[in-house]
Amino acid sequence: MGSFEITTVKRIAQLNDESRNFVLVAVVIAKSDPRFFSGPARGRGPFEQDTSAAGKQIARGVITLTLRDSERDTINCTVWGTADTILHHDTTFEVGDVVDVNRPQVSSSLFGRSEQYSPTVSAPYCLTVNDQTQGAQITRHEGSQKQALSALWKVPMVKASETIPLADIVASGSRCNGETFNVLVVVQAVRQKKAIRIARTNQVKSFREVILMDCSHSGVLMKFWSESYIRWSDRWTPLRTVLLIADARVEFSDFYKTACLAVDRKTIITQDPNLPQLNQLLNHVTSIPTQEIDVVCSLSSASTINTVMTVQQIHDRTEGSLVQENDQFTALCYAVITRLDLDGPSRIVSERCMHCRTIVREPGPTCPKYDCPGHDTRTPSREPFFDITVDLTDHTGTLSGCRMVGRVAETVLKCDAATFVRYSEAQKTSLKWRLLLDRCAVRLIVKRRSAVRFQTLFSIVDCTVADPVEVEAKLKVY
């Protein structure tokens, strides 16, 4: 390349088949996982023999960056290089960074196979940067355009009207397995990063599960296998970070019996997009229960439940042969209370903050959360509430770990939590034997174990001593 060749700055909209010797300045809006392979050293054919050290196979790799330089214009850039070069690009450039693409090759993307596995973009061209081409490289941009281009990271790739509710994806079950959809969601929880050994390659690979929610559904699991996205998710704040995910792939989980989401090669994630629906979504998720204890309390307002089931039938609906795609059902169970440890070592009364409703385990009168109004107050900001674990037994088996919480427990025990903690041991024992080993009519809401909930939740919403005549008429054999 001669010294007389001048490098100009071009925009995506200006590119054509004749574009040469230019620099493109753009923001990274998506990044693929790097892929590595072995190839012959430069200048030697794949079938030429060479026993020297210089002729040995060298590790090379490829990575794709999706770039944007205006609200309308986007393009894919494929980078080829040695393994060290590709690793450098993977760890150096993250989504949201502004980069200079120096002297890339421009080619039509209409017939390119790689475009089938890359994010959908507006440009009819694609860029290629090869480390064997003199002057071709990607560097971090530090010029005057950085601030303006960084703002484009928040511009959504699709309109809010082009997204679908999570509830529709879950309701489709296995019928949409492998398909891609656009979703607008809030991060409900970010789970710890885990490592798994891939049997086919014997390599250890990291992955992370993130729980997403929207106005239609309280939680759908999404898996991230990309180290780049895992690092990015470290900065996501539950119940505050909004994601617009374009082309999220649906994967039906046979283990959880529900639809989950995953990052596809075509997926683009926009964090906190510039959309008017963002605040509406955030206001909704802050008004619904997300902690397990609050979910149990919210279920206590259930209406009439009259579907009679035995303990075995409930087990079959949760983990046995009668499991359905819907993860929640109700049941009226005529059973004996065989565990009601009111006067024992079990935790009967818990405390939560009156302001943020967070469960408090530490001693003290105030809320331990620094951003809660109840943290620095001089007056107590905690309130006690019943959180009782109950076992139910009938002629078909035992239902362990049922939860009787809040107002339901107060109605059953005929006292509130504040009064209960002042009872003597003798009073607690007397209260226990009013229900223990009696046949009761117990109304339950069951939320089956799922991808976002590790254990089945049995919530007691009503419990009364049963009329023997009613039991005789309605009790089932199975």
Automatic annotation (TrEMBL):
Q: Pfam families from the xrefs?
A: OB_MEIOB_N
Task: Cite the GO molecular-function annotations of the record.
Answer: single-stranded DNA 3'-5' DNA exonuclease activity; single-stranded DNA binding
Superkingdom in the source lineage: Eukaryota
* Keywords noted in UniProt: DNA-binding, Meiosis
Q: Which GO BP terms sit in this record? A: resolution of meiotic recombination intermediates
The reply on keyword Transmembrane helix is no
Q: Does the keyword Ligase apply?
A: no
The MEIOB-like N-terminal domain covers which part of the protein? Answer: 10-156
Q: Which family does it belong to?
A: Belongs to the MEIOB family.
Q: List the PANTHER family.
A: CELL DIVISION CONTROL PROTEIN 24 OB DOMAIN-CONTAINING PROTEIN-RELATED
Instruction: Please give the name of this protein.
Output: MEIOB-like N-terminal domain-containing protein
